[in-house]
Amino acid sequence: MTVEGSANDSSGIASARPARRRRVAAVTCLAALALAAGVGFGGHWFYWARQPRIVAGPGDGALSIAFSPGGDRMAVGTTGVSVVRMHDASSGTLLWSKDVSLGSSGGIFDVAFSPDGARLASAEFGGAIRIWDVQTGERLTVHGGPAHAVAFSPDGVRLAAGSWRGTFRIWSVSDDAVLVDVARGDRISDVIWLSGGELATAGTAGGTPWSGGVRIVSASDGAVLRTLAGQAGAEVGCLALSPDGTLLAGGDAGGSVFLWSPETGALVRSFRAHGPSLYGDGPAVHGIAFSPDGTLIATAGDWDNRVKVFRAADGELVAELETPSNAYDVAFSPDGGFLAAATDHALLWPRLLWRR
Q1: Which CATH number characterizes residue 325's domain?
Q2: Tens-place pLDDT, residues 150-177
Q3: Which of 26, 161, 162, 272 fits a 20 to 30 Å CA distance from 194?
Q4: Peptide bond preceding 115 in cis form (omega within 30 of 0)
């Protein structure tokens, strides 16, 4: 080892030794962190935080979760006691909460931000659809329920909602006028806006319990335009649209994920996401989300206490995260820095990292 000073300068050698020890300690520390946070499998290393951050607040367990478009806010809807909560997304600080349990029961099944991030819509199992001011928590509007899914249109001027009772409605956000009101025979578990004045709805087919059905419907009158192919026999409970709008993902009660072309309705691929139920009555994908870059799909296991992340291109498993109870919903932050899940609590995992 060469150090500054003469060969006999023992002070120079002594000053170099701490630096070397620091480098060795740093390498040892990084190796320990890799072993603690990652797992090697099939030539890949998958990293994740084993202990997610818990974002707590009033109400029972979390049932629905969403990030604001700007990524600075995170909304949570709870089960049992119906509470809508707004948190600071970076710190987890509770900004406001609203208990609506006196007017509803069964929990807040869905929460959705408007595209400008100014409003939040909440869907109550046994109550109403409420619109909230994101900054203040003021209730702006109440629409009659029940509802199990809500979604703002991409331009923010309309709000769509569907329910297990088969009702499908669209309102004008500016004046609350009812634009579409259709009573369908099938149960609607999720609603998502597509391009070209269309929406996709997920649920049952023709009202038959636990039968699958994803339909493309018109935003002008709610008429069913086409039914997506390749999936049958299990209710589709959740939908997600890729950021570029070219893939529509759906998770069903059989534990599978299906990817369709929303334009043609053709099935692109499918893969099994979740295993057998802990209670013996079948697996289920209860929540699904694309990463902001569209390369990943996260799923929430309703019965196997797992959140999983897959590659959208081929369905390969990238990461598997254990949750303390059933996972009901998942959401990526807009910058991809966090993955959130609704379970006993709202859970936040930092960015998932992996390499070949």
Answers
A1: 2.130.10.10
A2: 999 999 999 999 998 888 999 999 999 9
A3: 272
A4: no
